[in-house]
């Protein structure tokens, strides 16, 4: 296994969806001990290719070979048996079982009395020792952090003796330090002879962890390079197919305070993690970034600013007036633009049209409604304008929102909330899962809104994004909000330490 | 050969109509088997059913009379199911609506018909509606399953009705039969045509279907109900009051079933008895499903189901084939429509083994 033989090869894979060529004659080889990065924008064909490899889709042409043997198309079971393991972006874990039980789940014969728990335990512990994947095996998965859940997923794959491990956007949910830890694990696994495919659209981490990079664009191979010789700029151009404009940003000119959290606590309710005695302000004309590991109070801040919850104590003031009811419509009326964290789940009704989803927040008001009746013409017109102004790629205003890609759903939401020229903007994970082009577009819109005088709160798990956008940083850890000061005085490691709860080791807070 | 399924992005109207027709034909073919087993000629049986349902003015009137409560209970199921509120309690809501009509319209209030009929209808609507609002509140507060509650409430209501018509509401002139005091003449629906049983309840049903269609297509309420039903998280995030919307749906759904009860008492029987409904509430679910939850479609589905039942009775008398055939026709139609809707949602690919082999 150590002699770098080819463990996986895809040859001439072609997959069409109607007129769309999702994969066009793609070739890919993976050697044992190698980390191959699969890089590309959304819609480049990464996911389709991996779904074919894993047997979820059947290719129109081409073959998949694992260790030289052809996999029958369309059979996930065969892929598993051949030693292909996949860690999805959305984990497939049973929340009410322990990590250990999740790892074993599905590997034990059903009809045998007395399972080999002890042997299984030894095996898992051996894998943990070899790979450096540390996790408390006896805790229920529901009580684990996202990073720990991911480790359980990887252990689950390793426990099944995989030869090829595929990770789909694995760092989307991790702190920079956790991501570094994951990279270390992947390097160790590769050194032990595993072949790893690392799917990502983040250039920095691809350069950090991979040996080789395969860039896809529009279903085709746009380039293949050895990481050691790769250049950041060149890869970005390969991905997008054209040069990406750098984000331009002027110094902030903060005006009056538009949002004030005054000793706000939210103990339970919509948000699973509490918020404890939070004090911070948000001023007109500035972008404040909220950094933190997922589940440290971001959801509570978002719920309070979305009108989904009221503080259990303390006050949230919008332009000086306290929020008195947990009613999203009241916040919309008060001039708050809200972009939800999970845009597919909370942002749109998939089976309703683009026009309906653009009008949904204001459907009771003119011009969309009169005397309780809908004005479909006004809704359609607004949608047509939004589609043009925000470049929403869709068949038309009557198309169902479920047919839109993630980036286009986000553009739809931008169109919905920014068209009112809001005073306050809550952007929760505004570009999670979006490709480079859509990201730049969302960032441009957010900065334009700030320059217009809006107060913007950006909650993000992507530090690069926060450093690109935020004028000032807040860091949340265990429900406590720390003002980390202007972004110009911060670096990644300082923010990372604050995110991990090391408040004392951080730079002293800059007095206002 | 191997088969694969892929979801369709969009289904055309032509496809939907073709599939519906194919489903209808398939149901007729399937029903032909038991007819043959019973020693009958399927074509003859079908002809007799059609003749029995539509063959004369009297037959057609009977079909419409049977369709009237089914339109209303079908709409009750359709409006609730569209919002993913599973109301299985239309039978109980029908009875409670009928009970309310008797309570209000049998002498409690003395009014001219122009006032008493609307009053009786409103009473029946509200009673039926409350019968659904309660389970909806229990669902919101405690997460209680509305399927179980509404289903079991059916039996509770029917037992309550039996108790009342054996007790305080018993008609002293009924010669001991368990039936309630009659509705005042001022509270009764007129016949649409003299000497035929069909009554103004049919008009109520048709108007309700049109209003519901308008609500679904044109109103803010319809928009909000759809949003809540399809994705309540997104609806809530967008500021639509999810719980209040659900209660409106519950009131509407239960109320429509209640109106069906009012119609049976005020238009057909004139009194309340425990055999008022031969399962109109449950059949309403079938009607709504056959109609694909469309309000206008519900009218036609109710007409179809009513015609099958009325026609099968007369076919049974002529041929000796059991009128249970009607249940079979309706049940198989529903199954065929459900199978058909599967083909509307998915595209089936088949590939010959040769292609598979080539790829290997």
Poorly predicted ranges of chain B: 354-360
Mean pLDDT of chain A: 84
The whole-number mean of residue pLDDT values of chain B reads: 88
Q: From the alpha-carbon coordinates, what is the Rg of chain B to the nearest angstrom?
A: 23 Å
Q: What is the CATH homology-level superfamily of the largest domain in chain A?
A: P-loop containing nucleotide triphosphate hydrolases
For the largest sheet of chain A, list the strands in their spatial order: 6-7-8-3-9-10
Q: Would you count the extended β strands of chain A for me?
A: 22
| Total count of helical runs of at least 4 residues of chain A | 17
| Multimeric organization | heterodimer
| Major pleated sheet of chain B | 2 strands, antiparallel
Strand content of chain A: 25-35%
From the spread of the alpha carbons, the general shape of chain B counts as globular
* Helical stretch tally of chain B: 14
Rg of chain A is 24 Å
Measured between the Cα atoms of the first and last residue of chain B, the distance is 15 Å
Major β-sheet annotation of chain A: 6 strands, mixed
Summarize the amount of helix of chain A as a percent range.
25-40%
């Amino acid at each position: 296994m150590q002699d770098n033989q080819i463990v996986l090869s895809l040859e001439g894979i072609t997959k069409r969806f109607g007129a769309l060529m999702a994969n066009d004659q793609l070739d890919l080889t993976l050697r044992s001990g190698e980390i191959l990065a699969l890089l590309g924008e959304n819609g480049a064909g990464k996911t389709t290719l991996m779904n074919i490899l894993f047997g979820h889709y059947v290719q129109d042409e081409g073959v998949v070979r694992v260790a030289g043997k052809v996999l029958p198309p369309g059979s996930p079971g065969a892929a598993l048996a051949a030693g292909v393991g996949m860690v999805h972006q959305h984990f497939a874990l049973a929340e009410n079982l322990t990590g250990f039980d999740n790892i074993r789940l599905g590997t034990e014969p059903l009809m045998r009395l007395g399972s080999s728990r002890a042997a299984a335990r030894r095996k898992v512990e051996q894998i943990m020792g070899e790979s450096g994947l540390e996790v408390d095996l006896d805790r229920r998965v529901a009580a684990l952090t996202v990073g720990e859940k991911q480790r359980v997923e990887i252990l689950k794959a390793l426990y099944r003796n995989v030869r090829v491990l595929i990770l789909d956007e694995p760092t989307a949910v991790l702190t920079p330090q956790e991501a570094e830890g994951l990279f270390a694990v992947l390097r160790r696994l590769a050194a032990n002879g595993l072949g790893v495919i690392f799917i990502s659209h983040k250039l920095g981490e691809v350069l950090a962890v991979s040996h080789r990079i395969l860039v896809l664009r529009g279903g085709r191979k746009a380039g293949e390079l050895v990481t050691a010789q790769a250049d950041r700029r060149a890869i970005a151009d390969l991905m997008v197919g054209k040069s990406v404009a750098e984000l331009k940003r002027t110094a902030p000119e903060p005006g009056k305070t538009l949002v004030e959290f005054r000793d706000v606590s939210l103990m339970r309710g919509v948000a699973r993690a509490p918020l404890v005695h939070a004090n911070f302000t948000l001023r007109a004309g500035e972008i404040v970034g909220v950094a933190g590991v997922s589940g440290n109070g971001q959801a509570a801040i978002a719920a309070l600013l979305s009108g989904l919850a009221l503080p259990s104590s303390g006050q949230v003031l919008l332009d000086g007036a306290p929020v008195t009811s947990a009613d999203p419509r009241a916040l919309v009326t008060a001039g708050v633009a809200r972009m939800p964290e999970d845009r597919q789940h909370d942002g749109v009704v998939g089976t309703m049209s683009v026009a309906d989803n653009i009008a949904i927040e204001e459907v009771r008001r003119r011009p969309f409604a009169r005397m309780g009746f809908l004005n479909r013409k006004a809704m359609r017109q607004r949608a047509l304008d939004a589609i043009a102004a925000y470049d929403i790629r869709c068949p038309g205003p009557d198309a169902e929102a479920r047919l839109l890609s993630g980036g286009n759903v986000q553009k739809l939401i931008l169109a919905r909330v920014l068209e009112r020229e809001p005073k306050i903007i809550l952007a929760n994970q505004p570009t999670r899962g979006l490709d480079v082009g859509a990201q730049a577009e969302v960032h441009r819109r957010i900065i334009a809104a700030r320059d217009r005088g809006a107060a913007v709160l950006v909650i993000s798990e992507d530090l690069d994004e926060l450093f690109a956008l935020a004028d000032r940083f807040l860091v949340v850890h265990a429900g406590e909000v720390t003002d980390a000061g202007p972004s110009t005085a911060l670096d990644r490691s300082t923010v990372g330490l604050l995110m991990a709860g090391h408040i004392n080791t951080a730079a002293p807070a800059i007095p206002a | 050969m191997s088969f694969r399924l892929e979801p369709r992005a969009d289904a055309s109207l032509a496809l939907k109509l073709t599939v519906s027709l194919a489903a209808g034909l398939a149901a007729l073919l399937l029903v032909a088997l038991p007819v043959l087993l019973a020693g009958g000629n399927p074509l003859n049986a079908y002809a007799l059913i059609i003749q029995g349902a539509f063959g004369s003015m009297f037959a057609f009137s009977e079909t419409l009379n049977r369709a009237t409560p089914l339109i209303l209970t079908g709409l009750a199921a359709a409006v609730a199911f569209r919002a993913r509120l599973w109301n299985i309690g239309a039978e109980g809501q029908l009875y409670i609506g009928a009970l309310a009509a008797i309570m209000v319209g049998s002498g409690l209030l003395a009014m001219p018909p122009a006032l008493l009929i609307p009053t009786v209808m409103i009473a029946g609507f509200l009673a039926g509606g409350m019968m659904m609002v309660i389970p909806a509140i229990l669902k919101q507060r405690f997460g209680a399953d509305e399927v179980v509650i509404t289903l079991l409430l059916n039996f509770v209501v029917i037992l309550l009705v039996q108790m009342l018509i054996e007790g305080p509401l018993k008609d002293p002139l009924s010669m001991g039969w368990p039936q309630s005091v009659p509705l005042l003449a001022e509270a009764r629906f007129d016949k649409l045509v003299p000497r035929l049983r069909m009554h103004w309840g049919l008009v109520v049903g048709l108007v309700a279907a049109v209003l519901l269609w308008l609500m679904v297509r044109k109103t803010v309420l319809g928009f909000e109900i759809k949003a809540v039903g399809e994705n309540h998280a997104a609806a809530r995030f967008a500021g639509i009051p999810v719980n209040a919307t659900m209660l409106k749906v519950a009131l509407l759904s239960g109320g429509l079933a209640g109106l069906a009860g009012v119609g049976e008492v005020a238009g057909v029987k004139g009194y309340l008895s425990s055999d008022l409904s031969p399962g109109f509430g449950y059949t309403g679910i079938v009607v709504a499903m056959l109609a694909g939850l469309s309000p206008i479609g519900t009218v036609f589905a109710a007409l179809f189901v009513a015609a099958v039942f009325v026609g099968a009775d007369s076919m049974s008398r002529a041929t000796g084939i059991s009128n249970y055939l009607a249940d079979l026709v309706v049940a198989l139609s529903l199954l065929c429509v459900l199978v058909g809707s599967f083909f509307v949602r998915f595209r089936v690919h088949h590939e010959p083994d040769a292609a598979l082999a080539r790829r290997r």
